[in-house]
């Protein structure tokens, strides 16, 4: 996605929002969604409080989500009805940041608290040998959205994985009620070397091969002990997307279960609408960030006696994604 997505004036956006009456969260559509205008590039998150928060730039968005697959396009009238009240900060633990007017490198903690990583040796222990490739420049104009916390003097002062796990959503990070919060799909960035498959030995299970992850590719939700942290960029890079096969649908009057398989562990997502997706005015989606090879997602609140168009989408741990061909199913009468 090109960076023009995030062009625009924060001051103008906030001024526009101030003229819009604030409505109750229960009346606000698109809660838990990332939204944009059809002719605009700025992305917003509609939080469980029924209010809108802007992503100041692509780097901050990418600290929460690995791609733009779930962005919903809404009308100008819908956008204007959702009050804009603030901006979104970096997700804690994912990357390091520095302010353009300050040479210090900071780790991010909950609620936008910046903690100075005092030495390169500490940064290396926290984020690997390639830690310098994981440093984002924070514009001075956005620095006021953050506060400074305690310095990091020792590795035990900061656990990046704990920080990530403590902020699974924008709501959790801001101390809002959870409601229909959208779960983030990133984890701490790190370099991970490719691992060869190991054949089973007596009394031990076989270990499958795992692809390399570059220093800048933040892996999807997987615990730290599932992969081995590498000391430098790996010698091979996985650039092959998963292969989708065996797509099936099982329907009831108001629900449908979509299943498929992939040849490697990948995420799951289904997009669907009541007309061909390329021409649809409104597209719904369901997703699951877990990396699996057998995928199954259930669509709910469907209309009986209706034909639906859908496509499945999967992304592997290296960020390679693929979309299955568009298919249809019809719900039976009640």
Automatic annotation (TrEMBL):
SUPFAM superfamilies for the chain: Purple acid phosphatase, N-terminal domain (SSF49363)
Segment forming the signal sequence: 1-25
Keyword Signal among record annotations: yes
Biased composition annotated in UniProt, kind: Acidic residues: 226-236
Keywords carried by this UniProt record: Signal
Pfam family, one: Pur_ac_phosph_N
Gene Ontology terms for molecular function: acid phosphatase activity; metal ion binding
Residue ranges constituting the Fibronectin type-III domain according to the UniProt record: 241-334
Residues covered by region (Disordered): 221-240
Listed name of the protein: Fibronectin type-III domain-containing protein
Originating species: Candidatus Buchananbacteria bacterium RIFCSPHIGHO2_02_FULL_56_16
């Amino acid at each position: 996605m090109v960076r023009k997505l995030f062009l625009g004036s924060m001051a103008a956006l906030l001024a526009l929002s101030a003229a819009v009456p604030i409505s109750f969260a229960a009346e606000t559509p698109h809660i838990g969604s990332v939204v944009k205008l059809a002719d605009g590039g700025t992305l917003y998150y509609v939080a469980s409080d029924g209010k809108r928060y802007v992503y100041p730039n692509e780097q901050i968005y990418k600290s929460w989500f690995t791609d733009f697959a779930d962005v919903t396009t809404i009308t100008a009238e819908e956008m204007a009805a959702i009050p804009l009240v603030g901006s979104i900060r970096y997700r804690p633990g994912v990357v390091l940041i520095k302010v353009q007017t300050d040479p210090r490198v900071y780790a991010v903690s909950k609620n936008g608290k910046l903690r100075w990583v005092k030495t390169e040796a500490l940064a290396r222990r926290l984020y690997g040998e390639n830690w310098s490739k994981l440093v984002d420049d924070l514009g001075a104009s956005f620095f006021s959205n953050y506060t400074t916390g305690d310095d990091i003097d020792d590795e035990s002062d900061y656990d990046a994985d704990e920080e990530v796990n403590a902020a699974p959503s924008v709501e959790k990070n801001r101390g809002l009620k959870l409601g229909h919060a959208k779960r983030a799909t990133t984890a701490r960035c790190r370099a991970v070397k490719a691992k060869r498959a190991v054949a089973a030995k007596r009394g031990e299970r076989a270990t499958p091969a795992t692809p390399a992850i570059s220093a800048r590719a933040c892996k999807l939700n997987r615990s730290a002990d599932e992969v081995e942290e590498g000391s430098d960029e790996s010698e091979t890079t996985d650039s092959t997307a998963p292969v989708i096969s065996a797509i099936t649908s099982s329907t009831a009057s108001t629900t449908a279960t979509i299943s498929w398989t992939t040849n490697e562990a990948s995420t799951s997502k289904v997009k669907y609408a009541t007309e061909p997706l390329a021409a649809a005015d409104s597209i719904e989606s369901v997703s699951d960030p877990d990396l699996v090879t057998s995928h199954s997602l259930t669509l709910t609140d469907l209309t009986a006696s209706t034909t639906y168009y859908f496509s499945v989408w999967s992304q592997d741990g290296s960020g390679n994604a693929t979309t299955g061909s568009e298919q249809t199913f019809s719900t039976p009468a009640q």
